[in-house]
Amino acid sequence: MKRTPFVQCWPLALLLLTGPADAAITVYRDVQTYLAAVGGLHQLITFEGGPTPGIQVPGDRFSSEMTFESCAKPGPNCWQSSPTVTWFDNAIASPAQGTQARAVTGALLPSGDVHPTTTSLALGIYGNTTGASIGISFFGEFFDAVRLNGETGFFGIVSDVAFDAFEVGLSGPHDEVPPFFINGVAFPSPSGAPTLDWPAAPVPEPSTNLLLIAGAMMLLILHRVRRAFFNDGKI
Where does the source fall among the domains of life (predicted)? Predict the structure, then answer.
C-alpha cells in the first residue's frame, strides 16, 4: 500500500498573509555548526543522476522516509494526487512554468500508525532565491518561515516546535526555467549517519545548464536555416 503524507502545503506567499503559529526558526549556514546544535543521526538525500532537461518523477523516488512535490499553483494543489517532483542534473526543482507561485515541498512519510515529526532539517538551495522563503508546517498548519533574500547554499533549520513538512516557495511570474532548485535534504533518522557528506555547490547550476542547452539549440537551428538558405542559391 502506497504511503502518502498527511499534509496540505500552501505557497508561502499566501501563508505569510495569515501569520505564523507560535513557533520560531533558527537558521545555521554551516554544516558542522548545524550538526553541533542538533546532534543525532541524519539521513542525507541527494539527487544525483537526473536527466537534462528535467522530467517529472514520483516524489518518493529518493527516500522511503520523505516524499517531495513541485507545483506552480496556490492552494492545496501540491498534494491532491500522487506527489511528483521535477528532477534534473543533481537537483529537484520548482516547475519551469507558472505565473502565480513556484514551490518545492517535502513531507515525512507515515509508517503504519506512526506519523513522524522533526525539529530540524537541512536544505541545499541554489538559483534565484530573491523573494523566496523556507516554511515549515504540521498537518497543514503553517508554523513559521524565513526569507532567503537572494542567499543560496546550505540552510540548517531548527524549530522550537515539531513539524512534518517544509516548503521552499516563491511567488510571481518567472522565466521559462526553474527559478530555484534543491540539491540536498537531510533530516534526523535512526537509519542515518552522525556526519553529513554534503554535496558541493553545482557548477554550473542546473538552471544555467538549461539556459545553455536552450541557447545551443537555438544556435543549431539558426545554423541549419542559414546553411539551407545559402545551399538553395538565395545569395
Answer: Bacteria
